[in-house]
Write a structure and sequence with these properties.
This protein is mainly alpha-helical. The chain has two helices and no strands. It has one domain.
Length: 77
Amino acid sequence: MQATELSTWQRRVSELTGRISELEEALAKTQKELLKAQEANAKLQRDLRENVAQKEDQVGLFYLFLLCSIPLRVLFL
C-alpha cells in the first residue's frame, strides 16, 4: 500500500512540476507581450503629442496668415 501511495504522489508531483513549467513559460511570454504593448503605447503617445503640437503650430500660422491678410487701413479705422 505504501509503495502505491508513494508512486501516486510521485506521479502527482511530476504532473504539478510540469504544470508549473507550463505556467512559467506562459508568464514569460505574456511579460514579453506586455513589454511590446507598453513600447507601442509609448510610441503612440509620442506620436500623438507631436501631432497635437503640429496642429497647434498650423492653427497659429493660419491665424497669423489671416492677420497679415487684413489690409492696414482696416486695422486703423
